[in-house]
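Homework help board

Subject: predicted structure for assignment chain

Our instructor gave us this sequence and asked us to write out the predicted structure in token form, then describe one feature. I got the tokens but I'm not sure how to describe them. Can anyone check?
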Amino acid sequence: MFNLKGSIAALVTPMESDGEINWGGLKDLIEWHVSSNTSGLVIVGTTGESATLDVAEHVQLIERSVDIAEGRIKIIAGTGANSSKEAIYLTNSAKSAGADAALLVTPYYNKPTQEGLYQHYMLIANEVDLPQILYNVPSRTGCDLSNDTVMRLVDHQNIVGLKDATGSIERLKAMMQSLNTDQKESFSLYSGDDPTSTEFILNGGVGTISVTANIVPKTISDICSLALNGEADSAIQLDKQLVRLNEILFIESNPIPIKWMLNRIGRITDGIRLPLTPLDSKFHHQAEGILKELNLLN
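My token output:
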């Protein structure tokens, strides 16, 4: 049974100034997360700029990450697409590469119905024998995977969880009420919204798939451990230290701010691919101030 709890970083894809993938930088990031007790890494998700990578690069990033990880940290491959056929291809590729699971964002732009979403996810789960995590982020996709549709999918043996990036704790509570005891054991709920992730875990979630974990991996790991152990007050207090960081990481479209800040602290090179552009200079002073507050910048 697939069982992953705690901090899962939605990893950036390090790039050179010309946009080419920095493979040495990828290894350095994965090693950093291993040493920081991060539980898992999502490779080529939204934060990893999947939208501007070609299919060969997408697959190669998954393969390289699995090789670097050497089983020391779980590798979850972003394999969602707005074409069911492409999503099946990418998910099969992730399985062949040895990924531990796949993360499948709802089809974007073409706005399928709930029945279309159900058939999309069932088709992929039937075609590829790999643990699959559903991913709902309607603010980016223009498509909302309803709780009712999730409940139609939870009993498939290959569908093992949901990343909920709506930021709605009420929605989480409703889902928890809908799941029976066996389903709660086999189907995991992950936060996909950093500002509410601690509250999410304290209300039944098992972890977070986090942008913020890119820059403070040990802190996010500690918060998750505290929350999962029922140490709510300590988790909340630690989380409060990250309020301003969580805010600025979405001041422009993700991963613009996180890549700029990681470059500023010397963790990655400065590349990002069009149509994304580097963080606007008007935010630099504010971002540097937050890094100094967190003792990440000398």
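Reply (TA_rk): Your tokens look well-formed. For the description, you could write something like this. The chain has one domain: 6-239. That's the kind of observation they're looking for.
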